[in-house]
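Field reference: sequence -> structure
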Amino acid sequence: MPQVLAGSAWEPASLSGDYLDRLSFAADGSWVAAGDAVYISHDGVIWQEVDLPASSPGSSASQTTSAGEPPGHHHVAAPPGFAQALAVSGNTIYVGTATGLYETTTAGGELVDLHAPAHQVRGVAVDPGSPSVIWAASDAGPLMSADGGKSWTIYARGIGQPAGSQAVAFFDGQLFASDASGVYDWQHQSADWVLTSNQRSVVSLDAEPGALYAVSSLGTVDVLGAGSWTALTDPGAGAHIHGGVQHEPLAGVTGFDGRLYGAGSTFGVPASADGGRTWTQLGGGLGETSAPGQLVEHEGQLWAATTDGLYRFQLVRSQPASTAWWAGLVAAAVVCGFVAIGIMAYDPPRRRRGQARSEAEAAVPQEHHGAA
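Structure field:
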């Protein structure tokens, strides 16, 4: 499927049997995966496992979103206290769970509680221009720390349903957040949120160069570009029951070389080569129990954090035309031009000769034979 830069099929790569929901890469090249634990690797082969904090008696991995759907890709039951959010800034790792927000580094070591004044941390974003500024989407609404997690402030004014805050992301110098009723833009001067999109149940805000993708658990994908939101064609990945099996919704979008790839659907990975106008599926090799919670492109491969470890898919980058290719094209055009000129130069006399022949034949009397 060259139109979506596809290789042959998905293949298991690492951490087989481990429940994964998030994947990222650190500034030092480290791999960071999270799900039933936090996994750190410097080569993608040998992994260090960092345990997550135990769930509190009142929390549960089966927590639902404010829209009523389970968050993420839980076609396979999520383990207790699983990681719901992951962000990596420099070599610092932030992990959101049902009990709060935690921190560690790519060197490993236990997770440190940042004592955020909330639970159910579903999204984390670090200001790319000021790494000490951390935002989190939680059941208390959006949270912000300006000192690397030492102190926190809840900023929920303007959010329609603060307890249902799902995602938070920086894009083009602006901060965006979502809840069950829409997507909001942070107003720094007035310290409140302004509704910028009515798209419902947005569970993921994915920033790509030149575009911010809002992915809904209802299966819709909208894109913010050039200051306005546009609804893309439905990838056909909304949550539903098929054959008695719960098929989970799209959970996120990632881009590579002008193509889009969607994570979360148990029907495979929706892929688009035309900016989301049409979609196809890259599902071969994953299996229904391995729905990816997140996709990340890394060194020409698409990596998927799934309910059964890490999978990879070899991508084929579009190759620009070479100098030799252009030279050949020009030479062919020149040859075709000369041939066309030759035909045009030869064609008028030929047509004149044909016309004269027809006139001569018309001048010859025709014989008529009657009945004997």
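Note: The chain has a mean pLDDT of 79.
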